[in-house]
């Protein structure tokens, strides 16, 4: 669930602080929700997150079904690979890369390759 909350928030273009403000909680609560070993939001907060980020509640809560309320799913790779992210840093980097245009993704790949991966 933590990966889906983070994916929904980043797709909506919100920072943790912005989501917290809109949900009426502290930023630390959002950070906990997005941490794999953190706390799980109560049902009412989960419903608020779904509304704020415009994702389907069922997807946010269970990972089943379409993610988006407008009928478009999140990048299929995000859904398929969410369990393969090894830590929060990798998840953040992956999320940022997926928001880039195809041309900028190729540039990011070239930069990473130059770093000696």
From TrEMBL:
<protein>
    <submittedName>
        <fullName>Helix-turn-helix domain-containing protein</fullName>
    </submittedName>
</protein>
<feature type="domain" description="HTH cro/C1-type">
    <location>
        <begin position="5"/>
        <end position="60"/>
    </location>
</feature>
<dbReference type="Pfam" id="PF01381">
    <property type="entry name" value="HTH_3"/>
</dbReference>
<dbReference type="InterPro" id="IPR010982">
    <property type="entry name" value="Lambda_DNA-bd_dom_sf"/>
</dbReference>
<dbReference type="InterPro" id="IPR001387">
    <property type="entry name" value="Cro/C1-type_HTH"/>
</dbReference>
